[in-house]
């Protein structure tokens, strides 16, 4: 026995010596710290654990904030190709590869590649890999001037590249680190650029991700986490969008979308490179060739669906607050806004309007007259949007009707796990396994199973809206708390125990230890958990809750819940109102924009939050959600006069434009301050004047794909100065906005791209040419945000009124911007879409059956003659009455026009000589007649030609 013990010790020492030699050898060939794939991504990895995993331990002297992995995978970790008949289709685990640290390895992987037109779809997984059930087009025919292709290399560890025809590598997985198992998957790739935009939903202070020096992990797992704009916490917020756009140094853009609904994360690294991790499922990648940024988004929307089309009124100014004490306060607020002559279209009601926070109910004591009041507001063209939470109290009529309709709810996986001390309180739920939690209502709640493939749950939800609409005539629907937000899960002392407005009912308890804890406490929790040091069930249901009538655990599909609810709520709006409206959701996933819009969550009344909302609006347009905006003036905390004023100026350029704040905060409707009311009126009048252009952008995005608010580099992808612009943005291709983002300033530093001309569209410099390049621009408090019109553009406008309905009755206007820097012929172009603003539009259609007008505009002039051609290229079956054009303004016009020479279709135009003018100082020509207009669009023509002569 003693001799055997000595032999064992000798063997252990020999193995330790060999491991030490191997580790020393590995360390002597340590990888460049900028090119590592982390083998210890969980917190506090140790050298011993790293070595046991077979990975390389190599500390660096770099500052800790660079987050360089000390423990990393050998480059040959991964798989090799074994299928020689169909090369690349089967990959086998390399025998010398590092094993999966968190679960058993899949020994064989399917590697499927599919040409989707000019793009590529790649699927890496096993026969049993989970596939999320969402309605995507998995075989789009991407059209592009460039084509992508896949090349596979089979050395010690197989890798692949995705390349353009010119050899540019969009992706290169030779960095290694491919790991695949049922509970943990990982893949890494070198990428060709540091200009990376996307991944969501997170808060960061710059639009472009910073890959230059640090490793940063961005978790993706939808949860009730508000934005913290004062720091870069990197916590995942309400939604999941695993999509990014890369802008290459030559100005070409590409896109990469990874479809997986498990908890997941992306690491950005300084090689530059990316590492994707998920705790289940498979890798399903879509590589999109662009080559322009706008084409990348259009190609992405061929997969996820084009954006929904909101009602015209949904582009108006909207107001809400959480904490209205009753209908009387709503009336007072609306009265103040209207008395200040502020253009205004939509009043919201937060959960205060409900009977003790129960969906599909109205409070009786302080809200009983709500339906009558809304009838009065509707007569004044003001609309109503109501909030609805998915959590349904289990002791009232709506829940009873759900059971009668055989609707399904998220449930415990086994009867022995049910919290009987809660379940037995409620006769309707007592004999069920429905998982109950705590949210706003006084009793426990259940969550509808929107994954239900029988559609019985979805039909019950629709029927509830239809019934309630007959009681209170809402026009839009706001869905909140749909990450499946639950109060105080596993908390022994819930916060609401000290809240006089909430009963002390027991919270949900999920097992985080023992045999049933594996889904809430998995081998690798992802940084969705590590960042907050809590389990995955924090503020939500247990991860082993079952969906689709018990067919799958929640952990696989939790991030899809907001999308699933948005889809059915979109149909509920259609069947309830019969008209276009708005659906605004807090939680989103890829394709959510096809069914609704989004607001950027419960921000705070701080300048930091104002700034990050600019980034958020641009990002969500990249994600395919065009109807997006922030809580203007801030949700949490008390705003102040200057911040609210500047945020109202900025908010006028959000597509979804709503002022909203929380209970207990001071009121922040604009009339609380005279200066804010005056500025809001000015900014809103500017917005309402330009709604025909904004609505046209939405129409184009819904019909053809694309963005509404977009980063400046979208239009100027070869101008490196635009790559780092975070706080400027474009409305379409023609308008650039430069909002104020700092306190105590009356100017803003900005950049106007130099390959075109720009014209002021605000303040006393209106119409004059702005100097391109970097500069300092006036930003007065009594105007709109600094905003500029791009040379070569023609945009439609309309004389503004105090509601969108009344504005639509007013005359049209055109603004034309010359661009002699680029085009010696001074040519400008534009287009305009117009429909009734409320008929339901099926965005999945080809729009051939949609009733709308489309106008194309072309303008050119020389020293002798100017000509504007207006072509009507699409006429609706049921013609709408079109207002006439009352005004044409031309910016950058270098000659004085002979006003009496103006003709329309060779007939003398009836312009007003008193209202028309030319300024030799600002170089603005104005042709106008405000009483009847001078271009009549209802005379059943399809072309109008306007000409005039110049004065020599």
Summarize the structure.
The chain is α+β, with helices and mostly antiparallel strands and 952 residues long. It contains 15 helices and 50 strands. It folds into four domains: 2-72, Spasmolytic Protein, domain 1, CATH 4.10.110; 79-304, Sandwich (Immunoglobulin-like); 312-599, TIM Barrel; 692-949, Immunoglobulin-like (Sandwich), CATH 2.60.40.
SSE blueprint:
Blueprint: H1 2-28, H2 47-52, E1 56-57, E2 71-72, E3 79-81, E4 90-93, E5 108-116, E6 119-125, E7 148-153, E8 159-164, E9 169-172, E10 179-180, E11 185-190, E12 196-200, E13 216-220, E14 241-247, E15 253-258, E16 264-269, E17 273-278, E18 283-288, H3 293-304, E19 317-319, H4 327-339, E20 346-349, H5 370-379, E21 383-388, E22 392-393, H6 397-404, H7 420-423, E23 445-446, H8 456-469, E24 476-479, H9 527-530, E25 546-547, E26 552-553, H10 561-577, E27 583-585, E28 597-599, H11 607-622, E29 628-629, E30 631-632, H12 641-651, E31 657-659, H13 674-689, H14 691-704, E32 709-710, E33 729-731, E34 735-737, E35 747-752, E36 758-760, E37 769-770, E38 773-778, E39 787-790, E40 794-798, H15 804-807, E41 812-817, E42 828-834, E43 853-861, E44 865-874, E45 885-891, E46 903-904, E47 907-908, E48 917-919, E49 924-928, E50 943-949
Helix pairs in contact: 8-10, 12-13
């Amino acid at each position: 026995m003693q001799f055997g013990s000595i032999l064992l010790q000798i063997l252990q020492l020999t193995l330790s010596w060999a491991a030490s030699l191997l580790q020393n050898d590995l360390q002597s060939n340590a990888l460049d710290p900028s090119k590592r794939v982390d083998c210890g991504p969980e917190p506090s990895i140790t050298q011993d654990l790293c070595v046991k995993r077979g990975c390389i331990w190599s500390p660096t002297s770099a500052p800790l904030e660079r987050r360089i992995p000390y423990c990393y995978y050998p480059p040959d970790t991964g798989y090799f190709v074994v299928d020689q008949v169909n090369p690349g289709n089967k990959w086998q685990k390399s025998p010398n590869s590092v094993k999966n640290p968190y679960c058993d390895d899949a020994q064989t992987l399917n590697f499927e590649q599919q040409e989707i037109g000019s793009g590529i779809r790649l699927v890496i997984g096993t026969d049993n890999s989970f596939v999320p059930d969402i309605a995507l087009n998995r075989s789009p025919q991407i059209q592009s001037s460039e084509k992508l292709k896949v090349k596979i290399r089979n050395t010690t560890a197989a890798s692949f590249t995705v390349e353009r025809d010119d050899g540019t590598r969009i992706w290169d997985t030779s960095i290694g680190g491919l790991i695949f198992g049922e509970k943990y998957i990982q893949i890494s790739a070198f990428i060709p650029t540091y200009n990376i935009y996307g991944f969501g939903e997170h808060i960061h202070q710059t639009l472009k991700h910073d890959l230059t020096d640090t490793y940063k992990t961005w978790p993706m797992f939808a949860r009730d986490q508000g934005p913290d704009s004062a720091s870069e916490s990197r916590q995942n917020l309400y939604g999941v969008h695993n999509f990014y756009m890369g802008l290459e140094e030559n100005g070409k853009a590409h896109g990469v979308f990874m479809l997986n609904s498990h908890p997941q994360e992306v690491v950005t690294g300084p090689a530059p490179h990316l590492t994707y991790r998920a705790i289940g499922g498979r890798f399903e990648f879509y590589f999109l060739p662009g080559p322009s940024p706008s084409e990348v988004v259009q190609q992405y929307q061929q997969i996820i669906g084009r954006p929904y089309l909101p009602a015209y009124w949904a582009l108006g100014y909207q107001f809400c607050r959480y904490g209205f004490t009753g209908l009387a306060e709503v009336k007072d607020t609306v009265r103040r806004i209207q008395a200040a002559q502020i253009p205004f279209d939509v009043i919201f009601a937060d959960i205060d309007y409900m009977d003790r926070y129960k969906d599909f109910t109205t409070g009786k004591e302080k809200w009983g007259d709500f339906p009558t009041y809304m009838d009065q507001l509707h007569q004044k063209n003001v609309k109503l949007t109501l909030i609805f939470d998915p959590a349904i109290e289990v002791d009232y009529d709506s829940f009873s009707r759900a059971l009668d309709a055989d609707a399904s709810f998220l449930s415990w996986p086994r009867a022995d796990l049910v919290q009987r001390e809660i379940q037995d309180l409620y006769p309707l739920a007592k004999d069920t396994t429905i998982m109950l939690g705590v949210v706003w209502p006084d009793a426990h709640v259940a969550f509808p199973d929107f994954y239900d493939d029988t559609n019985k749950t979805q039909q019950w939800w629709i029927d509830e809206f239809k019934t309630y609409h007959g009681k209170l005539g809402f026009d839009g629907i706001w869905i909140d708390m749909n990450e499946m937000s639950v109060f105080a899960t596993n908390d022994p002392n819930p916060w609401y125990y000290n809240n006089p407005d909430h009963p002390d009912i027991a919270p949900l308890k999920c097992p985080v230890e023992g045999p049933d804890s594996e889904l809430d406490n998995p081998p690798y929790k992802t940084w969705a958990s590590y960042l907050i040091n809590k389990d995955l069930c924090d503020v939500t249901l247990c991860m082993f809750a079952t969906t689709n009538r018990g067919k799958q655990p929640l952990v696989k599909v939790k991030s899809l819940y907001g999308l699933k609810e948005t889809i059915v709520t979109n149909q509920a709006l259609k069947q309830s109102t019969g008209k276009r409206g708005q659906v605004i959701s807090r939680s989103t996933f890829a394709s959510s924009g096809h069914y609704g819009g989004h607001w950027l969550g419960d921000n705070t009344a701080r300048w930091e939050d104002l700034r990050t909302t600019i980034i958020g609006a641009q990002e969500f347009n990249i994600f395919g959600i065009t109807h997006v905006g922030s809580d203007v003036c801030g949700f949490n905390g008390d705003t102040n006069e200057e911040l609210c004023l500047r945020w109202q100026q900025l908010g006028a350029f959000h597509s979804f434009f709503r002022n909203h704040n929380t209970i207990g905060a001071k009121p922040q409707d604009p009339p609380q301050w005279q200066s804010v009311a005056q500025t809001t009126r000015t900014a809103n009048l500017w917005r309402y004047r330009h709604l025909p252009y904004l609505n046209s952008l939405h129409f184009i995005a819904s019909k053809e794909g694309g963005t509404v608010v977009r980063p400046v580099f979208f239009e100027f992808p070869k101008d490196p100065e635009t790559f780092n612009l975070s706080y400027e943005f474009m409305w379409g291709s023609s308008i650039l906005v430069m909002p104020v983002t700092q306190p105590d300033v009356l100017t803003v530093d900005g950049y106007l791209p130099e390959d075109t001309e720009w014209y002021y569209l605000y303040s006393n410099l209106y119409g004059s040419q702005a100097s391109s390049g970097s500069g300092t621009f006036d930003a007065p408090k009594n105007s709109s945000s600094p905003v500029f019109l791009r040379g070569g553009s023609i945009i439609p406008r309309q004389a503004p009124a105090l509601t969108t309905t009344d504005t639509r009755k007013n005359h049209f206007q055109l603004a034309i911007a010359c661009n002699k820097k680029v085009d010696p012929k001074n040519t400008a172009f534009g287009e305009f879409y117009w429909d009734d603003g409320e008929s339901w539009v099926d965005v999945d259609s080809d729009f051939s059956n949609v009733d709308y007008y489309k106008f194309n505009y072309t303008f050119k002039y020389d020293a002798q003659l100017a000509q504007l051609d207006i072509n009507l290229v699409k006429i609706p079956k049921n013609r709408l009455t079109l207002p006439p054009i009352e005004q044409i303004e031309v910016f950058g016009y270098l000659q004085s026009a002979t006003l009496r020479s103006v003709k329309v279709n060779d007939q003398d135009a009836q312009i007003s000589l008193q209202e028309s003018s030319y300024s030799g100082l600002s170089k603005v020509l104005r042709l106008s007649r405000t009483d009847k207009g001078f271009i009549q669009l209802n005379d059943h023509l399809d072309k109008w030609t306007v000409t005039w002569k110049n004065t020599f």
